[in-house]
Amino acid sequence: MAELTKADEPTDATPNVSDVEVADVHSEEEAVAALDAHVDRGEPILQVRNLVKHFPLTQGIVVKRQIGAVKAVDGISFDLYQGETLGIVGESGCGKSTVAKLLMNLERATAGEIFYKGQDITRLSGRALKAVRRNIQMIFQDPYTSLNPRMTVGDIIGEPFDIHPEAAPKGDRRRKVQELLDVVGLNPEYINRYPHQFSGGQRQRIGIARGLALNPEVIICDEPVSALDVSVQAQVINLMERLQNEFNLSYIFIAHDLSIVRHISDRVGVMYLGKMAEIGTDEQIYDHPTHPYTQALLSAVPVPDPDAREHRERIILTGDVPSPANPPSGCRFRTRCWKAQDRCAEEMPLLAVPERFKGSDSPAAHESACHFAEEKDVVHAA
Amino acid sequence: MTIIDPTDAIPAPRSGDAEKTGPLLEVRDLHVEFQTREGLVKAVNGVNYSVDSGETLAVLGESGSGKSVTAQAIMGILDMPPARIPQGEILFHGRDMLKMSGEERRKLRGARIAMIFQDALSSLNPVLSVGYQLGEMFRVHQGLSRKEAKVKAIELMDRVKIPAAAARVNDYPHQFSGGMRQRIMIAMALALEPDLIIADEPTTALDVTVQAQVMDLLAELQREYQMGLILITHDLGVVADVADKIAVMYAGRIVETAPVHELYKRPAHPYTRGLLDSIPRLDQKGQDLYAIKGLPPNLLKVPSGCAFNPRCEKAQDICRTELPPLVPVTERDGTELPGRASACHFWKETIHG
């Protein structure tokens, strides 16, 4: 695998591959031991470098020929710091869920690295991979399909202990599961109930309890509240914030609802067609966006304030997202961008602090992949 | 145009000013219940609302509040049984649709009242081309030939801004993106230029950028045709953008009605207030989100008194025993607030306190 991935390293990779302290491990034992290392608050716990995932498109039944690839994730890099929440937003098909699967190692990356505490988890296997997985857990979108209807709540939340028996001694499990139920605000007596006996919000709490069972350090949340009612959404978001403080968790929060992402995130990355378009703190992205796509996305969000509807400038994008199997040359957003010029078709903009903002300490000085990055506040009514 | 059988059963069209008295559609004291194995589910318990031509009414509520069931009752597409409408009236141009024969209602449905569904992919027939499905409206209601219907279908697709309509008319639903499919749904609803469109969560399944496109299109077409629009949604942002007036539903009842600007400024029901406080805002980063405690009620056993009382912070004894009626809301000095009503014993404290 490793030799293969080196070969098709993308040429257009973003340049910020730097300063990753690669842990010096020689054996599986050492690899497992390295995972226990303590990471200080504010230090990077997860570092993603030039991550690529292409799904091959094949033709023919007996003799399969590859005729192309869906470039779901095409060279993205970011850091997740200990104790923070990194929000990832984008339209459907932009690759945000594929990123989640890659971080969980549920999909093998085509190229690129994911460093967890300095170890590249895309190359791990066996015992070392199992140990990493214990520390990175996931909360899924749909609480109706992500819980097995034939298992009791106790079995669902306790299942991680079957796979990682060292996390809880056998006789202790029931008590642990009840503790977890209590932590997420469910009655511990519900341990023998089945998922259908719970409402959507309660099911999502069960999903969260399962994610917490192994005391992970990183939780990847893929649209955790999109399937819930408004009044229940707020409960689950508050619960997740409380748990983050209590257990010192780092979240990657993937969602399409930009208001919720702003509420929960410390930093936000905006994805478009497999690339990171812009990344920065929540204030930088929401109040001082410089990438046209971010601006369009933000201006399209309906604001729950009828007085704003006359004043707010809205950028309505035309057309749909192009197919990731055949993305536009140069900047991927150029086909829908109102600023696009010839240069955008020829030269792929790199994710970096734009030249004009370099050295300035204005909030507009954050990484943005646009040749013509320009600050524009679209969220606040004029 | 060859309109088949324009019998006197169909109320006078919008252009004819024969009936200019009442509102376009008026729902009066509508009740809907479902017979299930677990018992009688009272999904809608006495709903009243009205829509005029060119007006947008937003019906806001969470799942299980009865907002979609009300819409289905208006359309006449409820499965009966298990559903039953024990009482109530649905007046369309002043005539009670619940008293009409099946045949009469069938002629109204699609032609005068149309519906846009949430999930365009599962509402379109996957084995028929979109042109055929769009043309069906003209073939069935107006007796056009296939060829004529197809020409009409292309016109409609142009109307809703589907690029290269003539080339795509023979494509199948799966060949369109989510936003385009929703446009086809809108085109289908518009086909016979109805007086009233009911849109049930029309943009919930779409991305924000596409949602903005679709809502804009809907608003533009509504202005052009002066249609009444009932928008059913749980998204307070979308409501703020397009609605003229709002009805908030909870457990099968309307708990508050208000013109859009008023509702967001001064809610008169604790549930509305809770909903408004619990949505995160794009333009500001607050601290903890306010969360309404508890869960929406099980419709098999709706709490006695006010259905919201177990979740309400202001609940008193009276709330647990007495069902609050929907009463007009006034200013402190008693000045009327047109269009405003609240079903809370303590609406005065909620709006003014």
Automatic annotation (TrEMBL), chain A:
InterPro entries linked: AAA+_ATPase, ABC_transp_ATP-bind, ABC_transporter-like_ATP-bd, ABC_transporter-like_CS, Oligopep_ABC_C, P-loop_NTPase
Keyword tags: ATP-binding, Nucleotide-binding, Transport
One function term, GO molecular function aspect: ATP binding
Pfam families, per database record: ABC_tran (PF00005), oligo_HPY (PF08352)
Domain ABC transporter intervals: 46-298
Keyword Ribonucleoprotein set for record: no
Keyword tRNA processing: no
SUPFAM superfamilies the record matches: P-loop containing nucleoside triphosphate hydrolases
Family label: Belongs to the ABC transporter superfamily.
NCBIfam families: oligo_HPY (TIGR01727), PRK11308.1 (NF008453)
Protein name: Dipeptide ABC transporter ATP-binding protein
Source organism per UniProt: Streptomyces glomeratus
Automatic annotation (TrEMBL), chain B:
Gene3D superfamilies given in the database record: P-loop containing nucleotide triphosphate hydrolases
Highest taxon listed in the record's lineage: Bacteria
Compartment(s): Cell membrane
Chain positions covered by the region annotation Disordered: 1-21
Keyword tags: ATP-binding, Cell membrane, Membrane, Nucleotide-binding, Transport
Classification via SUPFAM superfamilies: P-loop containing nucleoside triphosphate hydrolases
Main location: membrane
Pfam families named among the record's database cross-references: ABC_tran, oligo_HPY
Family: Belongs to the ABC transporter superfamily.
The name this protein goes by in its record: ABC transporter ATP-binding protein
Organism, as annotated: Streptomyces glomeratus
Upper taxonomic lineage: Bacteria, Bacillati, Actinomycetota, Actinomycetes, Kitasatosporales
